[in-house]
Amino acid sequence: xxxxxxxxxxxxxxxxxxxxxxxxxxxxxxxxxxxxxxxxxxxxxxxxxxxxxxxxxxxxxxxxxxxxxxxxxxxxxxxxxxxxxxxxxxxxxxxxxxxxxxxxxxxxxxxxxxxxxxxxxxxxxxxxxxxxxxxxxxxxxxxxxxxxxxxxxxxxxxxxxxxxxxxxxxxxxxxxxxxxxxxxxxxxxxxxxxxxxxxxxxxxxxxx
Length: 208
Hints:
By secondary structure, this protein is mainly β. The chain has helices spanning 2-22, 101-104, and strands at residues 38-47, 55-60, 67-78, 82-91, 109-110, 121-124, 137-147, 149-150, 160-163, 175-177, 185-189, 198-207.
């Protein structure tokens, strides 16, 4: 009997720490499961792509932070055509004359004023500077079709709308560029096709 009581007490003693952890009552108003990440967004505005456009909108890696791209959108108005769009992972940065960010975008903006300054670089290319020279190995991550409406037709075009990771804390991987990978980038590529009009859209990402 003494052995049985001793064994029971030992089992209960081992279970106590686990039970104590399970029965912790969260503090009201505090999310104990997820931590908010510093989040940023950058948009392009009325950007006219080059003829036979290739890469038009890119985000580059950071020397100090992990970059996690979570959302990308692209809209167009133009000549009423369909434009194939690729999302490419480039192991080498594009080179060329970028669009003037203050006029056409993209400019990195904080989603909260308390965030530190973004460290990722965002860049776009337009008809003024021409198509960039694409460097390094290119891997296509996603593909889609941009249905472009006529600028005079009050019909919304079919746009590119891609999400990465999950909304509940981004437990799944997004488009991730590790800290220090400054020669990696993700780019939207129009596969040598141009909508004949303008592009608008944005990319959103987190940094940690």
